[in-house]
Amino acid sequence: MSEEFLHYIWEQHLFNSRPLITTSNQSFEILDTGKRNFDSGPDFFNAKIRINGTLWAGNIEIHKKSSDWFLHNHQNDKAYDNVILHVVEEHDKPVFRTSGEEIPSFEIKYPGHLKTNYQKLLDAKTWIACEEQFHKINPVILQLGFNRLMIERLENKTDEIMQRLEQNNNNWNETFYQVLARMFGFKVNNLPFELLAKSLPISTLAKHKSNLFQLEALLFGNSGLLNQQLLGDDYYLKLREEFSFLYQKYKLVPIEGHLWKFMRLRPANFPTVRISQLAALIHRSQGLFSKIIEIDSLEKLKELFDVQASEYWNSHYNFNKESQKNTTKRLGESAVNILIINVVIPFLFVYGETQNKTQLKNRALDFLEQLPPEKNSITTKWEKLGIESRSAFESQALIQLKNIHCEKKNCLNCQIGVKLVKINIDSTG
Fold first, then answer.
1. Ordered DSSP codes for 350-407
2. Of 102, 123, 356, 379, which sits 20 to 30 A from 261 (CA to CA)?
3. Helix 377-384 × helix 392-400 angle, to 10°
4. Per-residue pLDDT tens digits for 49-68
5. In a domain, 191, yes or no
6. Going by DSSP bridges, is the β-strand pair 54-65/83-90 parallel, antiparallel, or unpaired?
7. CB–CB of 344/370 below 8 Å?
8. Are 106 and 193 found together in one domain?
9. What domain range is 63 assigned to?
10. Quick check: is 90 in a domain?
11. d(Cα 206, Cα 212) in Å, to the nearest integer?
């Protein structure tokens, strides 16, 4: 069984506790199992135990075999000198501090059904490990953990944004623009949109933000989509002509046009339409990131993203090919919600974190509570199991649970998994 399972047994105090005897036959009692350490160093900090009447305060290290202490070279690492108890499943040799002093060891024993239940989850081949047993637990248990999951998801996105920010020399505007552009690809075209943004800095676009046609010429030209053919309608040829000038002026390097995907997409989601909508957003928004930081209303935020493709696209989905229907290509409510959930809210949270502005972090969470839940394959599956999201906050939490915990069989960090492992000793659900 994994060390993770032993950490769980120790933390939850699920081991046989009468009597507690070290491997050297010393009686002891546990006053505090300590606080779990997820970084390098001993597994639990600030534990308290009493051995033969003497109080010890320090750290706990847990291994499957006590000889793993030497396998990990802890005997030469002073960070482990404050370990007061070595907890193992199998004691095969004594362990020592760097001074040569022996550390008390405890061979942990626990009810057999705990291991059986956990192994059953690990062996499951279903969508989630607990799918066949899910009905045994009150789903409210899962909802109680949504807040932790949502914070965890935002923290994961924080790491990603901070990496991009470092690559962009701490330029928040450029970083926001790149992430926003990537999300305009809505999964299918996120890579070419990201490459387009990196090849065409927001500082260049800002010089032409008052001229929508020039913005489109820059974006379409550097997308490689104006290289598909030499001849075309007036709009197409004028874009090519404008871009040829701007291309020389800024010494631009367009990306390859073949990267864009049109197959199996609804025409309204074609990259041509999305690029025009992105140009419209840049055109109408002076200092887009600064505006977003200042907006404290979800409705005002949605208004900011209420943009539409230029008039040419009312009658086109592709260049030089007029469509039968003449319709305004507005960025739909669902698309706006996706952009707010996946770009605006993480940036609000990260900016609030880095600038020590708690109100921005709280605003990000408030927006999530106000937005409707996402509808996708993951949330649909959860609904079939009886878990229906009431807001984007909850749907994001469920996506985090599935992608980060369920996919990795990380059941011991899930309230449902914990309950199912203990089910024989905690049958109340």
1. HHHHHTT-HHHHHHHHHHHHHSPPP-SHHHHHHHHTT---SSHHHHHHHHHIIIIIIT
2. 379
3. 90
4. 999 889 999 999 999 999 99
5. yes
6. parallel
7. no
8. no
9. 3-110
10. yes
11. 11
Per DSSP, the three-state class of 253 is: coil
**Counting every residue, how long is the chain?**
429
My answer on whether 192 and 103 are in the same domain is no
In a domain, 420, yes or no: no
Place of tokens 């390859």: 256
List per-residue pLDDT tens for the chain, 429 residues long. Answer: 789 999 999 999 999 987 899 999 999 999 999 999 989 999 999 999 999 889 999 999 999 999 999 999 999 999 999 999 999 999 999 999 999 999 999 999 999 999 999 999 999 999 999 999 888 888 788 888 898 899 899 988 888 999 999 999 999 999 999 999 999 999 899 999 999 999 999 999 999 999 999 999 999 999 999 987 778 899 999 999 999 999 999 999 999 999 999 998 999 999 999 999 999 999 988 889 999 999 999 999 999 999 999 999 999 999 999 998 889 999 999 999 999 999 999 999 999 999 999 999 999 999 999 999 999 999 999 999 889 999 999 999 999 999 999 999 999 988 889 889 988 654 444
Does 103 share its domain with 216?
Answer: no
Reference 279, options 316, 259, 309, 306; nearest CA is 309
In a domain, 142, yes or no: no
Report the number of distinct structural domains present in the chain.
2
Beta bridge partners of 86: 61, 105
In a shared domain, residues 106 and 174: no
Report how far residue 188's alpha carbon sits from residue 327's, in angstroms, rounded to the nearest whole number.
23
The Cβ of residue 177 has, within 10 Å, a number of other Cβ atoms equal to 24
Q: Are residues 352 and 209 in the same domain?
A: yes
Measured over the CA atoms of residue 380, residue 384, residue 389 and residue 395, the dihedral's sign is negative
Question: Is residue 105 located within the same domain as residue 207?
Answer: no
Domain boundary (320, 355, 370) is at 370
> In sequence order, which residues have a C-beta less than 8 Å from that of residue 251 and are 6 or more positions away?
none
Residues 106 and 244 in one domain: no
| Two structure tokens written together for 417 | 């998994």
Residue 253 shares a structural domain with residue 334: yes
Among candidate residues 370, 389, 424, the one where a domain is terminated: 370
